[in-house]
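Below is how a single chain appears once it has passed through the pipeline. First comes the sequence as given, then the structure the pipeline wrote out for it. We keep one example in the README because the format questions we get most often are answered faster by looking than by reading.
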Amino acid sequence: MIRKIIQIDSEKCNGCGACAAACHEGAIGMVDGKAKLLRDDYCDGLGDCLPTCPTDAITFVEREAAAYDEEAVKANLIAKKLEKELVSLSASCQGDCSGEDSFAESRTPQNPDKRVDVMPDTLCSKLSNWPVQIKLAPLSASYFDGANLLIAADCTAYAYAGFHDQFMAGRVTLIGCPKLDDVDYSEKLTEILRRNNIASVSVLRMEVPCCGGLETAVTRAISASEKFLPYQVVTISTEGAIL
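Resulting structure:
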């Protein structure tokens, strides 16, 4: 379609980055020290960036361009926010956590028969993606590329003490409850498996019958995706132990 869209003159651009900061849609980025329109469908054509440019390097033109895609812009902004949060989390963990196997003073659980782990005094989240709810997850995302995918029932994070370190670490995590959501996840999971280069799939479920719906949905999705994927199911008891 022919529409109004910005154009950046790289010869005039001094690399100050003011336009990138002013663009609320994330359409402008800094590449090799110069401002660049990253994607046509991120630009709404309103021109918030124009008055911020000190060298008048940005102008409006009318040309063939993809239509403004509000949903794509929202997804991009969420991804950027998550990336910043993960960088911040990683930096904070460097000071508090010296490694996955480094523990502060050990604690003796009040009921050791019902606990399988000795918990550390300081913990670091192993979350590597957002959103985590199956019903909110995108069908395609960069973090899915080559990912070991963990599909977990909501309750497992509360029932199993070592959820982050033993299951989330090194995996992309999606969670859901087929009973509460009252949906069949298999169609969406099929598309995620089809559209992305998933390396493996692990299912973490509770021993209760309703969790069978999650396992069934994943099994159907793998079959419908027509991909051969390493696959495992781990079941957690209501007392927090691996069965």
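The beta strands are 2-8, 28-31, 34-37, 58-64, 148-153, 172-176, 200-206, 231-236.

See the next section for the split statistics.
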